[in-house]
Amino acid sequence: MSEDWARRVAELMDSDFRLEVQKKAEEFRSFRNGDPESIFFELSFCILTANTSAELGISMQDQLGPKPFIGMSEEELRNALKNARYRFYNTRSRYITSNRWVAVELPMILNHPDPWAAREFLVENLTGIGYKEASHFLRNCGVFSFAILDKHIIRMVTSGLNVENKPLNRKRYYELEKIITKKAEEFSMEPGILDLYMWKIATGKLIK
């Protein structure tokens, strides 16, 4: 594995960007004590960003607000997403509405003493939620035990090898995750925080 990205992380840690990361981390932590509707809004965001982009998910949140995600019928949410020019309005409206039962459980899940068990619960019981989406949701709500293995991060970890079309099954996800976890330990930070630095290096942005 190339260590170039790790060197760049070390450089960012010694720059003003570290303050941006700390601010973003505090923003994420505030969700852990949020109400079920607000937390479900963030879960919906992570569903919307799968195979699209964080920018598009943020755009949908800004345009629609939290109420449609927790209160609209599937058809109403579908039409709202379609009118907002969201690409996957059929499947994602179905995923979101089918997952509403978990809203009341989310505060407890976020504060579960075992974050690995919390992630497994989300993956096993929710529709449209895999390891990446579950990790994204937990990280965005202040649980920093996991990095988010999207295509940008995978490319960095695998030394730029194009692996987008290779299946990212559970075993392989864990293998890649261990690499980032080990590197996070070397930097004395949690994987979800290291992910913010890696995302900045990969995209030039710091977004959720």
Account of the 3D structure:
This protein is mostly helical. The chain has a single domain (1-208), classed as Hypothetical protein, domain 2 (Endonuclease III, domain 1), CATH 1.10.340. Helices cover 65% and strands 0% of the residues. The chain is built from 13 helices and no strands. The mean pLDDT is 91.
Main traits of this protein?
208 residues, mainly alpha, Endonuclease III, domain 1, 13 helices, globular
Query: How many structural domains does the protein architecture include?
Result: 1
- Structural class by helix and strand composition: mainly alpha
Report the helical percentage.
Answer: 55-70%
Distance between the termini: 26 Å
Described by strand count, sense and barrel closure, the largest sheet is: none
Per-chain topology:
Layout lengths: L3 H10 L3 H13 L6 H14 L4 H11 L2 H5 L2 H10 L5 H10 L7 H5 L4 H11 L5 H10 L10 H7 L12 H17 L4 H13 L5
Helix pairs in contact: 1-13, 3-4, 3-10, 6-7, 9-10, 12-13
Provide a quick synopsis of the model.
The protein has helices at residues 4-13, 17-29, 36-49, 54-64, 67-71, 74-83, 89-98, 106-110, 115-125, 131-140, 151-157, 170-186, 191-203. The protein is an all-alpha fold.
